[in-house]
Each structure stands twice: as structure tokens, then as C-alpha cells.
Specification:
Membrane topology: Peripheral membrane protein
Subcellular location: Membrane
Number of helices: 5
Helix content: 25-40%
Largest sheet: 2 strands, parallel
Pfam family, one: PsbU
Main location: membrane
Radius of gyration: 25 Å
Number of domains: 2
Oligomer: single chain
CATH architecture of the largest domain: Orthogonal Bundle
Family: Belongs to the PsbU family.
CATH superfamily of the largest domain: Photosystem II 12 kDa extrinsic protein
CATH topology of the largest domain: DNA polymerase, domain 1
Distance between the termini: 30 Å
CATH class of the largest domain: Mainly Alpha
Structural class: mainly alpha
Strand content: under 5%
């Protein structure tokens, strides 16, 4: 994402570098040629930026599989909808989990204030499916209301 923004900025900046004025009046062909030259240079600049990225750059979140698409759910980063496939979790227990994080370990979810004994039983049932990874700002911000507008 950062590389795309950087490439866009370089492309936009190259539009203001100025082109030497043509000696003869502009025609449709000359305008097309200058656009083609601009697009060619912009594409070259974007390719140079993308090619300069280090090979070890992180392009995706390592815990992406724990955000609801796999068999385990990250209690620190997954949104409330990740618990839909666990009967009894959504919306009450899932809402309490995402509202009271982050957690240093999976066992910390039992310390949520206001959990009923039934809710603790549901948590115990699915405890083996939970992991507690380091919170990522990219995902924590959207944990409670991810696309649910009421």
C-alpha cells in the first residue's frame, strides 16, 4: 500500500516537471505524443519504485489466517464477525471479546468483567481455537463494527 502511494506521488510530481515548449503550434498528434511520453516516464518511475522495494518487505499481515478465515481466531485482531462460525459466540460473547482486548494470552478472556457462567462455558468450548497474537493497528481499529451499520 505504501509503495502504491509512493508510486502515485512520483507519477503526480513528474507531471509538474515541465516539458520544453514545442517550436511549432500544438496539434492533436503532438498532444498525443506528449501524453504517451508522460505515461511512459510515469510507468518507468513506478516500476523503479516497486523494483527498489527490499525483497524482505512485509506485504501482508503474517496473522492473516487468524482473522476468521482459518480454524483458529486471533482474539486481539479478529473482528466480531470472525466468531460467526462458532455457535453461541456471536454476537454477545464475541462483542465482549473484541471490546475488552488486547489480551496477553488466551486465558485473559476469562477475566472480562460481566461474563456469565454460560458465556464462560462457551469460551471454554472454543478455547482451543483461539490464539493471542500481538495487536496490529491495521486490524484493531475495525474489530467491533466491521461493515455492520445499524
Amino acid at each position: 500500500m505504501k509503495l502504491a502511494v509512493l508510486a502515485l506521488l512520483i507519477t503526480a510530481a513528474s507531471a509538474f516537471t515541465g516539458v520544453a515548449p514545442a517550436a511549432k503550434p500544438s496539434t492533436q498528434l503532438n498532444a498525443a505524443d506528449s501524453r504517451r511520453a508522460f505515461l511512459t516516464s510515469a510507468a518507468g518511475a513506478a516500476a523503479a519504485v516497486v523494483g527498489a522495494a527490499p525483497a524482505f518487505a512485509i506485504r501482508d499481515y503474517e496473522g492473516l489466517g487468524y482473522l476468521g478465515g482459518g480454524s483458529q481466531v486471533d482474539v486481539n485482531n479478529a473482528n466480531v464477525r470472525a466468531y460467526l462460525k462458532m455457535p453461541g459466540m456471536y454476537p454477545a460473547v464475541a462483542g465482549k471479546i473484541v471490546s475488552n482486548g488486547p489480551y496477553s494470552s488466551v486465558g485473559d478472556i476469562y477475566n472480562i468483567a460481566g461474563l456469565t457462567s454460560r458465556e464462560k462455558d462457551v469460551l471454554k468450548k472454543y478455547e482451543s481455537k483461539f490464539v493471542a497474537l500481538k495487536p496490529s493497528a491495521d486490524y484493531v481499529i475495525d474489530r467491533i463494527n466491521n461493515g455492520l451499520y445499524r
